[in-house]
Amino acid sequence: MLQGWDPREPDMQRVVAIHNTVNERAWQHVLAWEALHACECSQPPRLKRFQGKPNEFSPKARLLNMLGFKLPFDRHDWVVDRCGREVRYVIDFYSGAPQPGVPASMHLDVRPALDSVGALWDRLRMQAGWVASGRWRDE
After folding, report:
1. Following DSSP, what letter does each residue of 55-96 receive, concatenated?
2. What are phi and psi of 113, to 5 degrees?
3. Residue pair 18/104 in contact by the 8 Å Cβ criterion
């Protein structure tokens, strides 16, 4: 929930629905990253724990801010169990441009935290796949 916002009870059903939708979207992004390791593990990844860090900006968010982009309004760290190994993901939440008929617009930047060589390799592989696909031309 946005800091400093005091929702009224009638708003809560919508707030909960938006929150659930955003979490599901974040989980789908995590699963896309985890798909890089599907052949290593026969079990699906499982969310072990998460922590909100709204006042802690990720290094990537700080770098982008120095380049003129806005800071995210929230950050979460999610820890996923990948076959008994803990893998941390960083999720930065950015406000999106308002769209008619959409209650909330936001962009999620979901990626493995750079706390292992494997996480760095995953990020390089995913970026290379995105560039090779040509999808960046449409985004």
Report:
1. T---HHHHHHHHTTPPPPSEEEEEEEEETTEEEEEEEEEEEP
2. -65, 145
3. yes
Residue 135 CB contacts under 8 Å (≥ 6 apart), including other chains: none
Question: Is the distance from CB of 34 to CB of 42 less than 8 angstroms?
Answer: no
Render pLDDT for 44-88 as a digit per residue (tens, 0 to 9): 999 999 999 989 999 999 999 999 999 999 999 999 999 999 999
- Residue 7, φ and ψ in degrees, nearest 5: -70, 150
H or E stretch covering 119: helix 117-133
What value does the mean pLDDT of the chain take? 87
**Could you give the dihedral angle defined by the CA atoms of residues 37, 39, 42 and 45, in that order, rounded to the nearest 10 degrees?**
10
Helix (H) or strand (E) holding 38, with range, is: none
Query: Concatenated DSSP letters for 3-29?
Result: TT----GGGHHHHHHHHHHHHHHHHHH
For the entire predicted model, the pTM comes to: 0.83
92 within 8 A of 60, measured Cβ to Cβ: yes
pLDDT digits (tens, 9 = 90+) for 27-42: 999 999 999 998 888 8
